[in-house]
User: What shape does this take?
Amino acid sequence: MPIDHVGFSVTNYAKSRDFYAAVLKPLGFKVEMDIGGEAGGGLGDHGAPSVWLSPSKTVDNRVHLAFTSPDRKTVDAFYEAAIKAGGKDNGKPGIREQYHPNYYGAFVIDPDGHNIEAVCHKPE
Assistant: This one.
């Protein structure tokens, strides 16, 4: 499963968005999605965000790491395996329309508090 995107918290979303847009522009990145509010937004170089910025009052060292899944069944299997291995639920498998209509993901918290996700972007 390739890495789909990585995310981290920032204390000033607009400032960080503008900073990363400028810094990553030479690498071909641009703001791909800007939801704002608590959701934040992301930058990428292929039409979808691969670096996600999440607004937060404080910045912690926890990371959000999302893996690309080939299908929804694999997202479900990822979630079940993670829970069985001791992960904590952070979002059962399902559609997340705030990202796009086919965004099917599942989220778990690993033993160190990192938010790990599997996501499928394909329609059923």
In short: DSSP finds two helices and eight strands in the chain. The helical segments are 13-24, 72-84. The chain has two domains: 3-55, 64-120. The radius of gyration is 14 Å.
